[in-house]
């Protein structure tokens, strides 16, 4: 694979996918740094992985199922207590749709 | 006061014999911690009131003579949830997070009578090798306070090295227990993946993370494993395999033990002083009756590359949950939900966490998935196969824990790549899910060096016993830090 440097546009796109906004300075810095890291990572290309199965799970056994029993931990108040804003036993958030936003 | 006890067993006997009460040892420990905090910044939260309340309960009930941890102060890395006690993962985004449940390891230690003395500093969300990415400031190395304590479990390592406490817990995703253990001249064990429940560990990379003990000596690490290892239904990846008595396995006899030394672990990029110290350690193991051969883990040199794809990929997924809705930091004045997410995360995460989230998001994105994520997952298989091949003929693998001794604060923060290279010798064990320990192996220019021992999956016994045999024939673990600048003379 030829190493194409990651562009600032790509970095900003990835940031938006990850729900992050970057300052000008950050975008610039991250573009350089991510490019360096990705260039380092691309050294993997020299390894032949044809016919190699990927490893994505390290558990040593197949899943053990618990009994299908509902449990009520009675922790609603404690949980709501951790939420930044609540009202009438619900977590409060701002409007989901903002009129000014492009669809 | 912990300083007058060389081991958990020593302290336990003093508690049982009523030479000291749980309250007295807890008070003395808190005093030591506060004395050292200016120099070390090892803690995010010191649990003064809670610890004294727990100690009072132990004293009231009487110290349990059958329980080694009864009345023993223990520090927890601040990415382990503690019921009712602030848990930040050293991030601003959790600056006000008080969990409503204990991590499984915390429950097990508390049931054994341990005192929760405080929550130790780490790199934000355990992403780093120095604690310098912590929102709550850098911790300092007690051997030379101008140096980093390593990371990410740097606070847990520094407080044990300073002998505030005899035991702490850390977590290890790519070396975060072993590297700080090496930098601080203490023992740190990353158990086999699945040996210890991850329930209540704030997830970084779920296929790599493991919790493990950090102690002043191998016996104490084994004793801690006896308490924290075992199946937990709340962690589906925790193993149902029987837990052996790890302390009973410490015979100190390694005659005939077959040791492999990977040539890749003593190659380029390893400090000459570290190399010399590790070669001397290997000679020592040979003198104790082990057979030593050079072996090869050819794909281990690609470990760092695979790790910096897989770790960030899993992190980018795990850290989606921090959105300002249910707990933790929330931005002010967001005009809609999307803006709430974006502002909360942008204000709440530090730069290193953002870098890794973006790296992972990139590696998992449509155009890059095959070339990055899948490629790394396949390299992981090759690394596992390398270990399997060597472990057909050898009992353990040894080498250095880290390529250098502790580096200076601020020295490596400007360039993430330099920082990432700290993990080159530790990530292979995480990628393969294997148990690995760092045990003190002497000093280079007044700073500690760690000997790493890696074992077969669920064979903590050989790992611990090899480290124990080495420890019993050296005095490195008895060396104590200066708490000053400039290292030990």
From TrEMBL, chain A:
Its job: Allows the formation of correctly charged Asn-tRNA(Asn) or Gln-tRNA(Gln) through the transamidation of misacylated Asp-tRNA(Asn) or Glu-tRNA(Gln) in organisms which lack either or both of asparaginyl-tRNA or glutaminyl-tRNA synthetases. The reaction takes place in the presence of glutamine and ATP through an activated phospho-Asp-tRNA(Asn) or phospho-Glu-tRNA(Gln).
UniProt keywords, alphabetically: ATP-binding, Ligase, Nucleotide-binding, Protein biosynthesis, Transferase
Family under the similarity heading: Belongs to the GatC family.
The protein, known as: Aspartyl/glutamyl-tRNA(Asn/Gln) amidotransferase subunit C
Keyword Nucleotide-binding on entry: yes
Organism this protein belongs to: Furfurilactobacillus siliginis
Subunit-structure text: Heterotrimer of A, B and C subunits.
Gene name of the record: gatC
An annotated GO BP: glutaminyl-tRNAGln biosynthesis via transamidation
Enzyme Commission number(s) from the entry: 6.3.5.-
Pfam families on file: GatC (PF02686)
Reaction(s) catalysed by this chain's protein: L-glutamyl-tRNA(Gln) + L-glutamine + ATP + H2O = L-glutaminyl-tRNA(Gln) + L-glutamate + ADP + phosphate + H(+); L-aspartyl-tRNA(Asn) + L-glutamine + ATP + H2O = L-asparaginyl-tRNA(Asn) + L-glutamate + ADP + phosphate + 2 H(+)
From TrEMBL, chain B:
UniProt-listed Enzyme Commission number(s): 6.3.5.7
GO CC field: glutamyl-tRNA(Gln) amidotransferase complex
Principal EC category: ligase
Database matches in Gene3D superfamilies: Amidase signature (AS) domain
Keyword Transferase listed: yes
Catalytic activity reported: L-glutamyl-tRNA(Gln) + L-glutamine + ATP + H2O = L-glutaminyl-tRNA(Gln) + L-glutamate + ADP + phosphate + H(+)
Stretches assigned to the Amidase domain: 24-464
Function comment: Allows the formation of correctly charged Gln-tRNA(Gln) through the transamidation of misacylated Glu-tRNA(Gln) in organisms which lack glutaminyl-tRNA synthetase. The reaction takes place in the presence of glutamine and ATP through an activated gamma-phospho-Glu-tRNA(Gln).
Name of protein: Glutamyl-tRNA(Gln) amidotransferase subunit A
């Amino acid at each position: 694979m030829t190493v194409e440097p990651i562009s600032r546009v790509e970095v900003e796109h990835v940031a938006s996918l990850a729900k992050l906004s970057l300052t000008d300075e950050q975008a610039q810095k991250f573009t350089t740094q991510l490019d360096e890291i990705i260039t380092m990572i691309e050294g993997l290309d020299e390894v032949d992985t044809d016919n190699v199965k990927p490893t994505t799970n390290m558990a040593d056994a197949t899943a053990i199922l618990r009994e299908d029993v509902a449990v009520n931990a009675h922790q609603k108040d404690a949980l709501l207590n951790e939420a930044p804003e609540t009202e009438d036993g619900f977590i409060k958030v701002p409007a989901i749709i903002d009129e000014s936003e492009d669809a | 006061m912990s300083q007058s006890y060389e081991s958990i067993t020593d302290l336990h006997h003093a508690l049982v014999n009523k030479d000291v009460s749980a309250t007295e040892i807890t008070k003395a420990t808190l005093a030591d911690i506060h004395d050292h905090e200016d120099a070390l910044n090892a803690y995010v939260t010191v649990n003064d009131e809670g610890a004294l309340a727990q100690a009072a309960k132990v004293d009231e009930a009487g110290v349990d003579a059958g329980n080694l941890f009864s009345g023993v102060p223990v520090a927890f890395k601040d990415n382990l949830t503690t019921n009712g006690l602030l848990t930040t993962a050293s991030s601003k985004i959790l600056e006000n997070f008080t969990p409503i449940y204990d991590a499984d390891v915390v429950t097990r230690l508390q049931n054994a009578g341990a005192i929760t003395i405080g929550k130790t500093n780490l790199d934000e969300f355990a992403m780093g090798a120095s604690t310098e990415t912590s929102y709550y400031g850098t911790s300092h190395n007690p051997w030379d306070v101008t140096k980093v304590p390593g990371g990410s479990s740097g606070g847990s390592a520094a407080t044990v090295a300073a002998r505030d406490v005899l035991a702490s817990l850390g977590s290890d995703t790519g070396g975060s227990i072993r590297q700080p253990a090496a930098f601080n001249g203490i023992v740190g064990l990353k158990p086999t993946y699945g040996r210890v429940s991850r329930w209540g560990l704030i997830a970084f990379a779920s296929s790599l993370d493991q919790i493990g003990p950090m102690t002043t000596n191998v016996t104490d690490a084994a004793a801690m494993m006896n308490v924290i290892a075992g199946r937990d239904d709340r962690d589906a990846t925790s193993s149902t395999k029987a837990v052996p008595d790890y302390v009973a396995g410490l015979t100190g006899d390694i005659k005939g033990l077959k040791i492999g030394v990977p040539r890749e672990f003593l190659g380029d990029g390893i400090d000459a002083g570290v190399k010399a110290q590790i070669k001397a350690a290997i000679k020592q193991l040979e003198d104790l009756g082990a057979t030593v051969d050079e072996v090869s883990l050819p794909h281990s040199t690609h470990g760092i590359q695979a790790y910096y794809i897989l770790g960030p990929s899993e992190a980018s997924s795990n850290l989606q949950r921090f959105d300002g809705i249910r707990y933790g930091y929330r931005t002010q004045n967001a005009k809609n939900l999307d803006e709430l997410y974006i502002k909360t995360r942008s204000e709440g995460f530090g730069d290193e966490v953002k870098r890794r989230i973006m790296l992972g998001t990139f590696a998992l994105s449509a155009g890059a998935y095959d070339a990055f994520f899948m490629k790394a997952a396949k390299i992981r298989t090759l690394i596992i196969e390398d270990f399997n091949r060597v472990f057909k003929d050898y009992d353990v693998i040894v080498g250095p824990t880290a390529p250098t001794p502790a580096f200076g604060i601020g020295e490596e923060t400007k360039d993430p790549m330099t920082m990432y290279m700290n993990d080159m010798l530790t990530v292979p064990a995480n990628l393969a899910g294997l148990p690995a320990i760092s045990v003190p192996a002497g000093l280079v220019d007044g700073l500690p060096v760690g000997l790493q021992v890696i074992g077969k999956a669920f064979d903590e016994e050989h790992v611990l016993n090899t480290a124990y045999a080495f420890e019993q024939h050296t005095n490195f673990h008895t060396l104590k830090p200066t708490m000053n600048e400039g290292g030990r003379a």
